[in-house]
Amino acid sequence: MAARLSFIVGVIGNIISILVFTSPIKTFSRVVKKKSTENYKGIPYVTTLLSTSLWTFYGVIKPGGLLVATVNGAGAVLQFIYVTLFLIYAPKDKMIKTAKLFAILDVGILGSVIALTLLAIREDVKLTFVGILCAGLTIGMYASPLSVMGMVIKMQSVEYMPFLLSFFLLLNAGIWSIYAVLVKDFYIGVPNAIGFVLGSAQLIIYSIYKNKSKREKSIATMEEEGSATLVKGVVEMGAFDNGDEEGGGGDDVKSNKSLNKGHSLPKPLLKRLYSMPQQIVKSLSLNSYQIDSTWVYPHENDDHLSS
Fold it and tell me: Region (Disordered) spans which residues (predicted)?
């Protein structure tokens, strides 16, 4: 009964894991369309490639590890495609950093672990050695989006945090935690339990800043619409004034001009604006008492200018 239940949970885990591995397809379709990686980071895909490759190796050397090997093998193929696309469309500096990381982790470390396990480690220790490495890398895979979470909090925008990836990572961690309990596999259970906690944190942050992003976009849209309306009104007023001048003037033209002159700004404000530069220049030669009296009682200067 326990073996059958673990097999069913494992199959469900395979399905969810495939959904996790395919969730960045939307992200990379945008990257290919724009021919730019924008603010996306390559670290999650490089680390996930190493993790899935090692889990595939773990499933191969573990008795009864078929479900672990098949799903992670498929995931490794997809992650390799994502890393390749990232290297193609990333800016030069980001591409060089990601390529170095890929060479170190997915070529150097992966090859060394496989060679060391097959050639130098005793048979009874192989599974433990690879299992510990897989557990550590899985924790790193779940923790790698923390850099994206920091950017979301800083920018107060979820534009560069893919919701599907965070959601399916949470489901994936939960189902594989259950599977680990059923088959009593410590190396699968611990990292996925941690991943479940981190996945929950990502969704909480997403729900918080999703509404803020929408609100900021709506404010920006309103400002753009208001600016467009203002520009349109100025253009229409200019066209109206030009039409009146071409029509030969008259009382309407004079009234419009007087309206523009008389009501564009309040008269006291016009006087203040006119007198302010003179007050600044004059204050350079005044003592402290005179400066205070000049700025505290500006209406006296206004009266003097108007007389």
Answer: 241-265
